[in-house]
Amino acid sequence: MRIKFLGGAGEVGRLAVFIKTAANGVLLDYGVSFDAEDKPVFPLHVRPKDLTATFLSHAHLDHSGGLPSLYVSTRTPLYSTPLTMELSDLMYTDAIKLSGYYLPYTQEEVRETMASAVPLTYGEPVEIGRDAVLTAYNAGHIPGSAIGVLEIEGRVVVFTGDFNTVDTNLLRGADLYNLPKAPDVVIMEATYASADHPPREKLEKEFVQAVKEVLDQGGTVLIPSFALGRAQEIMLTLVKHGVNAPIYIDGLARQINQIVGRYPYLLRDPTLYRKALEAAIEVPNTYVRKGAIEEASVIITPAGMLKGGAALYYFKRLAQNRKNGIFLPSFQAPNTPGFEILSKGHAVVDGTLVKVEARLEWFDFSAHAGRREIVHFIKRFSADTRIILVHTEPKAAAPLVRRLAGEGFDNIYVPTEPGEEAVLQ
């Protein structure tokens, strides 16, 4: 068995792993990153004719965004949960609208991708090739996300995609108990190999308290959020804790809210989700957008790093008033306006320098396993299991790997650049 890391090696993003055996070629995710100029950066190429099956862990573009480029002339079976495919369809359409000039696919390839989908149900094994069986389990990351267990020609591979073992308001933590204890290989994300997340209850309490303080002084709270996953979690947190103010939902998050609502059995608390949808006010146009900023309200809108979308409209109008609040609940990548305002207190938006006078806060609502959970996850497996850390920066992962090696776990490998291979004899 040869495992080739096409992307996500030595980096966070554009994850893609190719597994080649005697009779099968299985692709695990095929994501895309975006450079400083917002141009897409794809994983290394894999020939579609070499693939017998593809597994997509979830719909975030850094795991899914390159897939349609592989469906130009072939229809490799694409295994994923129905919710992931429905969300991916929406995400591809949005990506084409925003970056279509730079993408090597169009809506036609997206249709081919969707037509190739084979639905997975958590816990139900599916044959995906010659002597190859795939079983998906809840990954706890975003709705529909899945950990894949691949039994292939006498080997067992666990692929996490992105995962989270901690319960959130949106989802139950990853289903770890059904995973094999002694697989041959675990290919796992380690985005937060160097950082722990705060206790969830403490985080929610501090976040809701900050929101209420801004509202009580008549201010508006802008919460730029990732449209898929984070926006829904923030919405649920506000409703759960009884925030008594209009909650506006703008941008792509509106459509995602409705799609996720059609899969209540995947949610931790379907009743709370339904209550949140009823409370939320959708923003369909500029008229409602203007009204939202003229009252004490909460506005949840993409983009999570203030790189574009409706968030910029609100930011320019709210940032310079001290009674307002700008609360960032998502990771902020360097060279983004979100990172700029956190580090400098100002950002250049549409060519204009905007100084932030509003209350500025960052809250760690991550949907990834933190360092503590990563360690516990690794220690679940046999000492003979080979652990491969992807979707992480080597400098971030190195201290964790050294620490575990000191405890006797010398079975961990961190590929550092796309193109590297691991071979199982």
Automatic annotation (TrEMBL):
InterPro entries: Beta_Casp, MBL, Metallo-B-lactamas, RibonucZ/Hydroxyglut_hydro, RMMBL. Residues 231-341 form the Beta-Casp domain. The keyword Zinc does not apply. Keywords: Hydrolase. Coiled coil: none annotated. One of its GO terms (molecular function) is hydrolase activity. Residues 13-197 form the Metallo-beta-lactamase domain. PANTHER family: CLEAVAGE AND POLYADENYLATION SPECIFICITY FACTOR FAMILY MEMBER (PTHR11203), MRNA 3-END PROCESSING FACTOR (PTHR11203:SF52). This is Beta-lactamase domain protein. The lineage of its organism: Archaea, Thermoproteota, Thermoprotei, Thermoproteales, Thermoproteaceae.
